[in-house]
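BACKBONE STRUCTURE TOKENS:
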Amino acid sequence: MIQRRDSVWVAAPLNEVWNFFSNPDNLKEITPDDMGFETVNEMPESMYAGMMIHHKVRPFAGVALSWITEITHVVKESYFVDEQRFGPFSMWHHEHHFAEENGGTRITDIISYRVPLGALGNLFEPLLVAPKVRNTFAYRTKRVKEIFGGQ
């Protein structure tokens, strides 16, 4: 299993940051265009535990993949968790944490995943998957700073 942690501080109050992240429609705003990201099903304005989200992504060579995640835990203005139910990974668990810090908000992502195809997938993970995940979260950090201001 691969685990990655990213953290960014933004100059915005916790409730504003939470309201942005807890609205599933905003995920496209912080996802790189080259992922070809789109949400297939209708979404409410705010997430809830048990909510299923169906995305289409095109992470490699424009090939469309279905990615269905479930929001498994939500604690308002503290954290939420999404887990893959169907998609490109053997396992995907993404924790989104939010905390007031120095007059702004600290956003911390903890991502745990496994690639498919066993040993073959593990061979390609550092060459294809890890750079894509790293670039996606670097873009996300950049966009979040642009939206909310940050360091």
Notes: The chain is about 25% helix and 40% strand.
